[in-house]
Amino acid sequence: MPHRTFFWFFFPSGLAMLLFIGLPIISSFFQSLHIEPEQILMEVEKCDPFGCKTETKVDIEATTKLQEEQPLGRFNGLGTYGDRNHLAFDEIKEAWTNSSSMAEFTDILLNLPFYKALLFTLTFCFAVTPPVVVLGFIVALSVNTITKSLKGPTIFGVILPMIVTPLIGSLVLFWMIDAKGILGSFIQFLFDDPNLSLKSSSQLTWITLIIYGIWHNTPFAFVVFYAALQTVPQDPIEAAIIDGASRYERVRHIVIPHLYPVATFIILICLMDNFRVLEPIIGFAAEGVAQSLSWMIYNDLRSENKMLFGSAGATSMLTIIGVAILLTPVLIRTWREFRTER
Amino acid sequence: MKKLLIALLFTFVSTGAYADGHSPCGVTDGSIKILANEFTTYRIFMDEVKSCAGPDADFSVTHSVDHNKLQVAALSANPAEFSAKLVTNGSITTLMNDNLIRPLDDLVAKYGSALQDNQKIVIDGKIYAVAFMANAQHLWYRESILNDLGIAVPSTYEEVIAAAEKIKASGKMANPYAGAFKSGWNLGQEFVNMYLGHGGDFFKAGTAEVSVNNAKGVAALNMLKRLTEVSNPDFLTQDTNAVKEEWESGNVALMHIWNSGAASLLDDEGDQAIKADTRLAPSPSVGGGSKPATTLWWDGFGIATNTSDVNAEASFRALLGAATSTEMANANPNATIWLIDGYSPGDTAGPVVDAANRGATPYPSLPYMSLLHGALSTELVEFLQGNESAEKALADVEAAYVAKATEQGFL
Known about the structure:
The complex is a heterodimer of chains A (342) and B (411). Chain A has helices at 3-32, 60-69, 79-82, 89-98, 102-109, 113-145, 148-163, 166-176, 182-191, 202-229, 234-242, 247-275, 279-283, 293-301, 309-341, and strands at 34-35, 41-48, 51-58, 74-75. Chain A is 72% helix and 6% strand. Chain A is globular. Chain A has 342 residues and is mostly helical. Chain B is α/β, with parallel strands linked by helices. In chain B, strands 1, 2, 3, 4, 5, 6, 7, 8, 9, 10 and 11 form an 11-stranded mixed sheet that branches. The radius of gyration of chain B is 21 Å and the shape is globular. The two termini of chain B are 31 Å apart. Chains A and B meet through strand 2 and strand 3 of A and helix 1, helix 3, helix 4, strand 4 and helix 16 of B.
């Protein structure tokens, strides 16, 4: 494609990306450098059904005036990035000098909200993505071999987990794994432990979330693999059959090499998606034990007080950096493949 | 204060409602959009609001247990997503901080002749909300189970635990106690109750500097831990509504939840044998203290600043009609303690009045209290799961609060 044609072809979507993705990111970045203006407090008399007393209240007039002078808030530089709810530099430094062993240091580190969330997010990413790729591939291979008349309904059944809204899907499972739900009581029966509850311990909750993640993401891998399977050239396969290659050998030496770039693509998208995990945490009411970076942003914007735009902006920026770091190896690999193909 | 409350709760002075002034009901202009918490008493109240608004009104109400988290974003927009919000002494502060609800003096002067003085929430000389009910958390128990095992109704949390352990040992129930321990607002509230019960103060007097990491805080946390040990292992996922379901399924013999729970626990739905066996008791005290470990609440409504005057007036009229409806109050005497003129309290009002008499404090309405409540909501989980010491959990609460309060400009 000539560069000129490519430019005009790409221009509309490039513009949309700039407007709806680029600018909001820049604006979040600016917001993350600011914190709310100082709150001016005053003592007033408050009367309610339980009586009257003098209490503190925000001086609305004075605070509004400050807000009008500084609509973005006070400039805080990278202060928000370094505070306890984000990268927590001071706390880490203190922990490093004061802890006697590596284990103690790790304990303190993973108790800080950002690192706690990062640990879960990364665990979720790396526990969910490989099984998704493998399962998606196996399901695609299986569906590819069944008779034509059954294919339609089977495909529909397989992609159902992806069609179901994540929040609804996780809520349904949440009720099923309840100690009195069908899955929960089956597991109790299986392990012969009437007090076993998937919701009560962090480890079991994490495992539940990961299994849900695999269940929800596999259809995506399946759809892409299934489409790619249709492009596998028939000639080498027939030649292999004549040479007496078994089914396994055909898959191993012809199909899989053909699908490598597709697998890279799936890994890329899955890692990106799973790094932003949020809905299952809400659906499974797992906020207490499993927090992700996205959940931190959500929590800042839905706290019971004023929305913490600065804090949410800082977490967003850190998430973007995290995604970039996570994807670098895969992108480098794709780039190399692209170069060799040329 | 306690005298005042009793006086307020039990004065049935008729002031001749609607004798003068405009009748609030039958709204034809403007739209009424209300955001409210989700529980049965609010449903009863909203039915009355709707019928007061009349068939021609543009009326809608959104019930959500997450109302506190939605309110700031929804009312900050201009025009606001909702024209009115049901508020409590807990949630009103957040709205006041950002000037999101408007003074109601003009509207009260025009329509509010039937209001009692104690319904008016006056801050710095202006009416910002109209209260219609009082609420508090207190103990509930199953009479037959306690009687069978010869257990006296517990009056302290130490006795609650002893009773729960006895029930557990008898094999009648595996997890006899329940409280709303869901991580989030509910869990924070459990700590607030228990800490106040131990006589603690959340802040250094007159400042926004937090101080919960002390002996009282540790004692409060340890008591919560012991309670969760006699609760359903899923306690971190159970909010008040989930606890009520546990109760109605007969899995629980002792619980500490809201007085307004009576509206659904004592209605004609569900297992009537359990209903007949359900008793209300005062909120227990703890750690040798005399105050019950609970907080007093009022529920009322506020009108959004960022809505048109027409919508504000329409919403005010409909809500006021319900907040002065003696018929609604007397038709549902046990749904809660109504603050409405002419209401005769039902048999369920006792524990709330008792809490006020024994010196329970109202939930602190400080501008930065919700930040501390938020920090409590998330930082106590690891302690309750046994992964952290009480001191460490409280140090985390303080650190999380300081980071947020600094960003918000309180420190």
